[in-house]
Structure formats: structure tokens, C-alpha cells
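Worked Example 4.2. Read the sequence first, then its C-alpha cells.
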Amino acid sequence: MSTLSERIDWLIMHFEISQSALANLAGVRQPSVASWLSGKTKNMKSGPALALCSKLPISQEWLVNGTGEPLRSDAKYPSQQLLTNDFNPFCGNMRRIPVLSYPDAGASDSSNLIQARLEAFENGDCIWVDKELPDDCFAWRVIGRSMEPDFQEDDILVIDPTITPMPGDFVVALWLSRQSNVVEMLFKKYKERGYDESGNLLFDLIPLNDDYPKYESEKEQLNIIGILVEHRRSYRRKR
């Protein structure tokens, strides 16, 4: 890692932090970190370097000049030492998951989904959840009003794609619109209705707002991709 860009990239990946979090640790603005990453800024000033080395168990000689090993010999669980706005003493029992947008959350190509998750972490689009949740979990923001009043637009949903839905669960599904032939993402309540003559499970995806339509599995192309396991809402007023 002979360049500052490579070393900053290594820091972000090793400590699993965003550019914004790294900027907070270094006492600079996020565009400065972006300049380090892009290679536009080739040398780090002493102030940010000292700040980073005082908060992360990294070698200043390595950070500034690229010589020696990245981690100091006394390095211990570095992610638990980052007591900033992005990291706190409770993070030992927590882990981060990405907040994905549509269509990222419904990407059928695994490489595209991996890239979307990495970009979310890079941009700081992530939240803290219980570390016991599976690695495949992701977060998604509610779009529209079909699930009001229980779920409002911009509420954050933690979605687990590893479990099978049960009647009454809230699910995220992909739906192929017949009119536009475009795949859209739905968030609805799951209801089973038995099986058809071929043994296929029949189910409905139901909105909580009666002004919106339900979706029937035998009439629509539906693919459930995850189950709601946590619901978060901010009560901060928008200005």
C-alpha cells in the first residue's frame, strides 16, 4: 500500500466504517476523505494523521509514509474503541447492516447485490442492529402510503431474507407489473389461502391502507425476498 488512497481504503474496509465516520475521527470534513480515496490528495497533514492514530490502533509511520505494519502491536478489538457519533460503548453487541434502495435490495445478481451493500457501507448508509441477526439482513425505507397508519413513508425496516414467512408477517416482495413490465418492490402483510390443485401455495399481499389494492399470488408474479424483523421510526420534525 504505497499510496495514501490505498491506505485509506484499507482503513475503511478493515474497520468497517464510512467516509463520514472516518472524517469525524480525523477531525476533517467528508470531502477531505473523498480526496484521500480518489488520490487527489496524496499526502495527509499531521493534524488528521495524529487524530486518527490517537483513536485507531494504527501506526502513524504506516499511515503517513506507508512503511511498516498498519496495526500497532497493542491493537485490540479496534472497532470497540471508536467512541464517536458513529460508534459507542454498546457496539460490542451490535453490527451494521446496509440501508439499500430499490432496486438494490431486490438485485437478482449476487455480484450486483454485494456491490450495492459495499457502496452503502462506503456512503455511510447503514444502521446498527443486534449482532445475532444474519449477515444477509438489510434495511429498507418505506415508500408510499399503502401501509399507513402502522408504517409511514421513510420509516426504516430491518429485513431478514433467510426466514420463511408465516401468516400475519410483514414481507418485502418483488412484483412484475403487467402494465409497465417493470419489477417493483412491495411491502405488505402476508396472508396464506391454502393450495391450488397443483399443490402451489396461494397467498395474498395485503395493504393496511384500504385505499390500495391487494396482490394475489395466482394472478400476479410475486417473489418474497424478506421478512420484517424490526421497525424504526424517527420522530424528528422535518424542516
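Now turn to a second chain, presented in exactly the same format:
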Amino acid sequence: MRRVDGFRAGIAFAASLGLAGCMELGGDVTRARTSDLNAPTIMGSGPKAEPAVLPAEAQSPVISTLQSRRSILPEGGAFDQVAAAVLAANSRAAEAELRAARLRAEAQSKNWLPTLGPQISLTSLGQVIAQLVIDQVLFDGGKRKAERDFAKADVEVSAVRLAEDTNRRVYEALALYVLAQEAREKAGLSAAALKDMGRFAYIMEQRVNGGISDTSDLNILRQKLAEIRSSEQMSRETAETSFAELNAMSVKKLDGVSGLSAVSVDPAGARPLAVVLAEAEKERSVAGAQAERAGHMPVICAQVIGGTGGVSAGVTAVTAKPLGFGTGASLKAIEAATEAATRRVAQADEDARRDIARLMQEAQGLDRQGMEAQALTAQAKANLDLFQEQYDAGQRQVMDVVGVYETYARAAQSAASLKYRAVLARLEIARDLGLLADGSEI
């Protein structure tokens, strides 16, 4: 009867220890609040991807910010079709890492609870003694709370990396698509030039056959025809290669998609993903430093041990890391690591602002150059029409018209290149800001 009463007393004591773990004891061991639990993830569209159902206060600010971001790609446009096709085929390795981080955070969110485990020892008499040990930490210098914070920050880091990975994939697909569209347009311009230049070559050939012109001019025109034909073939091969690569990373063929979508991006609309990642990594580093610092402090635990010999209870104090002559330097190194994480955030912010400022100036410059190229193309076309009229009136030679036509063809090719380069610059800005895919659907 005494053994039964002792066991009941041990169970009651263990229950009281469990309640102690739910209260704040000097801010060291506290029950995990809802906000300390695993934050909702940015899930994919796979068959096992199910959104977490958590209250609003449980959401991480970092993940909530990522989820609130909206794509700048016009819905239903060419860019949106390409993005949807490549995202549907995304293997999403970063999503698997995020799921693992969420599970680690869920495990750490319960580290304030008592632990239960066996204790087996061999006595000097050769007897095996098995006991059941319940441990409840009363004071650990904040180590377990820091571990929960670390796991939560690790989820945020994985979420930002998933957003980065998704936006990078969309950008790569759109870059291939823009390159293919540029190559198609240039191939069309080359085909038109080949047709017009062939007409000039035919006229020159007739003049040579009639003894009016020299064969050297005809040879020059034939060489120009060969160059234009080679340029057209090269552009078509570039378009085919780009679409082949694009189709390899999408769930359907995209050869039938054509045209460009109007893309407008505001750098002030969202923080660069690189900065968000640096801040999440900083929080993780700070939590890790706090856990490491707490490891130098004593840990006070309440224990209930039950076995064949009865039930006993007590309080123990141990030190996870023994103090030594290098303890002071170790603590200073922990503080230095925290400061380094803060400086990495500042450096990431500076680098991101520089990159976006450069890309914005580049996009604006390309827009200006594109308008100038279009004006030059229109002027070259007007000169070509004038020379054509003068040729028809017998005031110009064939080679005079050919020279003006080459100027017009080069201006048209240049205007096409500048247009697509400006689009790519804006897509690159959107990639850095995480605005190429809806955060709620990543």
C-alpha cells in the first residue's frame, strides 16, 4: 500500500511539474504560445500540398508578407500563360525543405513539456535495474525558448528561399520566351530584307546581262543576300532552341504563344527578397546565439524516478557546458556573430537597392533608346522611299538605294532588340522583388 501511495504521489508531483512548465519562470522556460508554433507555409499545387489552417495570430509576419505579394504579370496574357505552365511543372525542391523546417519547428514547439524515458543501469551485483524517469526543466537560461525561436526563424528562411526559387524559375522561363520572341521578330525582318534585297539583285543581274552595270556590283549584292540569309537562319534557330528549352520546363508546348505583356513594376511596392532572406537569417542567427549562450548556464530540472524499488523525486542542477578559461572568449564570439548577422542585413539592403536602381535606370534608358531607334527607323524608311522614287525617275543608281535600304534594315533590327531588352530589365526587377508569382499560390 505504501508503494502505491508513493507512486500516486509521484504522478501528482509530475503533473505539478507539467504545470510549472506552462508558467514563466524568470523568462527562461515558458509554454510555447500559438505564435511560437510552426508558421503556415507557402504550399504548392501537388497532391499532398494542403494549406495549414492556423489562426491569424499564428502567422509569421515574414510569411504573411510573402503570401500577400501579387504577380505583376497581366492575367491571361502571354507572360501569365508561360508562368502558369512552368510553375505547374516545378519540382519544388525548396518546398520539401520548407516542409522539413515546419516539422522541426513543430517538434521544437513542444520542447517545454516534460520528457519521459527509461533509465537502465547495471549494479555491482550484476543485476539490471530499469527505471522510468520524468524530467521537467525549471530553469535553463532561456535555451529552449531560443531553440523554438530558431526553429520558427528556420521556417521563415525556408519560405523566403521557396519564394526566391519560384520567382527565379518564372524569370528564367520568361527570359527564354522573350528571347524567342525577339528572334522571331528579327527573323521576320530578315525575311523581308531578303525579299527586297533579292529584288535589287534581280535588277542588277538584268543590268549586268544588258551590259549596263559591272559584275562587281552584282557580286556585292549576292554577298549581302548570303549575309541576310545567314542572319535569318540564325534567328530562327535561336527561336527554336529557346522554345525547345522552354517546353522542356513546362507542362505543355508553348510554341503557339506569341506577343508581349505590358509589364509595369514599382520598386517601392515590395522589399527585395534578398533583404527579407537576410533578415530571416539574422533572426535565426540571433536565436542560435541565444541558445548557445544559454548553454553555458546551469540547468535546473525536477525529476520523478519510478521503478521496482519505488518512486523518488528531486531537483537536480547540471551545466550543459563546463566553464573553462576560454568561456569568456566564447561568449564574445557569440555576441560578434549576432553583430555580423545585423551587418549582413545592412549589406544585403545596400546591394539590393543598388541592383534595383541600376536596373531601373537601365530600363528607362532602354525605353529612351528604343523610342529614338523607332524614330531613326521611320526616318530611314522615309529616306528609302525618297531614294526609291528618285531611282524610278532615273536619278539614282541601284547601289544608292541598296545603301539606304541597309541603313533602314539595321535601324529596324536595333529597335527590336532595345524593346525586348527593356522588357527583360523590368522582369529582372520583378524577380528580385518577388512579384512574378502570387505569394498565396506558390
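Notes for the reader: The mean pLDDT is 78. The beta strands are 115-122, 128-139, 298-307, 310-319.
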